[in-house]
Design goal:
Elements: H1 2-8, H2 11-31, E1 42-44, E2 47-49, H3 62-79, H4 81-90, H5 95-115, H6 127-162, H7 167-176
Antiparallel strand pairs: 1-2
């Protein structure tokens, strides 16, 4: 969806959506353990056992892929910096945006530190489920965050289109929407 938006949007928006697409692609790769989940080696009482990253044929390429994605992310963020700065300045106090961002960051922190490392021994029997639920909340909030930013960008574009228009052209703009 963000790749589609990068092709449909204005040039300033293109890089913002491309950077979001890169982040979603890396999240998908990480969630699938970089493809290792498609090569189960054995089934134990605790579940499937997967090979190490260096034991699969593409394991040596994963760091190169991540490096290319990091470089692409940096370029995309640099190219979209003007739009990002405008969105940051104008919508810093948007509560919905801040809530989605807090859930995203909180879910990642909980999933990757507390639950994955099994830091709370009282919940040790459920740490895998809690980790997955925290990651799920984080991913859903990332999708909601992208849609909220899209909504704010569309409102900004409409406001810039309306600014300076005559009453006649404003009526035409409204009718054609």
């Amino acid at each position: 969806m963000t790749v589609k938006w990068s092709f449909l949007g204005a040039r300033s928006e293109r890089w913002l959506w491309l950077s979001a697409a890169v982040l979603f692609l890396v999240a998908l790769g990480r969630e699938l353990s970089w493809g290792r989940v498609f090569y189960p080696m054995a089934w134990t009482t605790t579940g499937p056992e997967f090979p190490g990253i260096n034991e699969v044929w593409f394991g040596g390429y994963v760091p190169w892929f991540l490096g290319a994605m990091a470089l692409l992310l940096c370029v995309a963020l640099w190219r979209g910096r003007d739009l990002i700065a405008v969105l940051y300045k104008e919508h810093l106090s948007d509560r919905t945006l801040l809530i989605y961002l807090a859930i995203f960051i909180g879910g990642l922190v909980l999933g990757e530190t507390i639950f994955e490392k099994n830091m709370i021994s009282l919940w040790s029997a459920y740490h895998q489920n809690l980790e997955e639920m925290a990651e799920l909340c984080s991913y859903w909030s990332a999708i909601a965050l992208v849609f909220r930013v899209k909504e704010l960008v569309c409102a900004k574009v409409e406001a810039s289109l309306i600014k300076g228009k005559t009453l006649y052209s404003l009526a035409q703009f409204t009718l054609h929407r």
